[in-house]
Design brief:
seven-stranded parallel β-sheet, Aldehyde Dehydrogenase, Chain A, domain 1, 2 domains, Aldehyde Dehydrogenase, Chain A, domain 2, four-stranded parallel β-sheet, alpha/beta
């Protein structure tokens, strides 16, 4: 089809029609749908993995990190199902009273959570987003239009079909969760301009996709730009702990946004710490790039360039800088962070307090890996994305972050 509006207009109308019954659905019915979704995912794991294999077989010249993001196996299917079950166990945010107060004239005002509306999710490569976004939107009373990347079309279609079956089984409108079933990129532009059809766009993907959405969108967007995450190893760090944290932050899954891209090391402990952490990182296949002070200790590290400090590698590559002190570390982070997640490793409580106070990011860690920046790890069941916005929501987006609020005002005949 040459007219991409045919991909969005009808699904959009159906999604809006699904909003009211979904918003009014009791929590038990939504939870039943989530449990059905989880059960059907597990039952259909073989079919899902086979669909994913078709997507993987069609890849050409993909990096190992990209293939990892796209790969779906039975373990990851089970993880998606567990995430849905965890969502079902969480409190329903819809209808929650955030706060109440009484005015001098006797009027009582309550701030009450309500769904955002129709959410458009535009994402790349990670098929788990299809299940996570569908489940979170369902529980929070939002309809969702999902547009995954062309590289995962077979996998996403198979997962969306399971979601439809779960909704039908539970008596909820099937149109509440829809996959935009096309690889035509024009459909993305249509979603970005669908004012009155889509209430908010949540993107997940690489820098080129995110910046294109930022430039073209007419629909409000909850942004997620690059995840250039830092770990600062302080002079007072437990060095064995620091090695474990750094290896996990960089190498456990390098192709995700919460992976460490830059390691900052206090000069006082650099001669002892850098050889230890370098050995552990190289065992994981990490390429090391360093500043001049780093390369004086790690002579086989490649030299960093100015661009390295502002690069989200999403690969087994790490930039290292030796800094004089905490102040220089936080100055570097302020200059190069994208505001997603930053960490300090230290046994000095004053240094930890200063770091958490001075560093501006969605998540700031003391003695823990930046890899915990994740909705599941935060206890949200899953996430629909990680926001680096300053408006509406920041960090992992769970159920509450997919709501706005209205004011319910109770009077007794008052007039103004």
């Amino acid at each position: 089809m040459s007219d991409s509006r045919s991909f969005i207009a009808e699904p959009g109308r159906a999604a809006r029609a699904a909003l009211r019954p979904l918003r009014l659905a009791p929590t038990a019915q939504k939870d039943a749908a989530l449990h059905a979704f989880a059960r059907l995912l597990r039952a259909g794991a073989t079919t899902l993995v086979a669909a994913n294999r078709r997507d993987l077989d069609a890849l050409r010249d993909a990096t190992s990190a990209f293939r990892d993001r796209l790969t779906l196996d039975e373990k990851r299917v089970d993880a998606m199902a567990r995430g849905l079950e965890e969502m079902a166990a969480l409190p329903d945010p819809v209808g929650e009273t955030i706060t109440t107060w009484r005015r001098p004239n006797g009027i009582e005002i309550a701030q009450v959570r309500v769904p955002l509306g129709v959410i458009g999710v535009i994402y790349e490569s990670r098929p788990n987003v299809t299940a996570d976004a569908a489940g979170l939107c369902l529980k929070s009373g939002n309809a969702v239009l999902l547009r995954g990347g062309s590289e995962a079309i077979a996998t996403n279609t198979a997962i969306a079909d399971v979601a439809s079956a779960a909704l039908e089984e539970s008596g909820l409108p099937v149109a509440a969760v829809q996959l935009v079933r096309t690889t035509d990129r024009a459909a993305v532009d249509e979603m970005l301009g669908a004012l009155g059809v889509i209430d908010v766009i949540i993107p997940r993907g690489g820098p080129s996709l995110l910046h294109a959405i930022h430039e073209k969108a007419r629909v409000p967007v909850i942004q997620h730009f690059e995840g250039i995450c830092h770990t600062y190893v302080d002079r007072a760090a437990d060095l064995a702990q620091a090695v474990r944290i750094c290896v996990n932050a960089k190498a456990s899954r390098p192709g995700v946004c919460n992976a460490m891209e830059t390691l900052l090391v206090n000069a006082e402990i650099a001669p002892t710490f850098l050889p230890e952490v370098a050995r552990a990182l190289r065992e994981k296949g990490v390429e090391l790039r360093g500043c001049e002070r780093t390369r004086a200790i790690l002579r086989d590290a490649k030299p960093t360039t100015a661009e390295d400090w502002d690069t989200e590698y999403l690969d087994l590559i790490l930039s290292i800088r030796v800094v004089d002190d905490l102040a220089q570390a936080t100055e570097h982070i302020a200059a190069h962070s994208t505001g997603l997640a930053e960490a300090i490793v230290t046994e000095d409580r004053a240094a930890a307090r200063r770091f958490t106070h001075e560093v501006d990011a969605a998540a700031v860690y003391v003695n823990a890996s930046t890899r915990f920046t994740d909705g599941g790890e935060f206890g949200f069941g899953a996430e629909i994305g990680i926001s680096t916005n300053r408006l509406h929501a920041r960090g992992p987006l769970g159920l509450r972050e997919l709501t706005t609020y209205k004011y319910v005002v109770q009077g007794d005949g008052q007039v103004r």
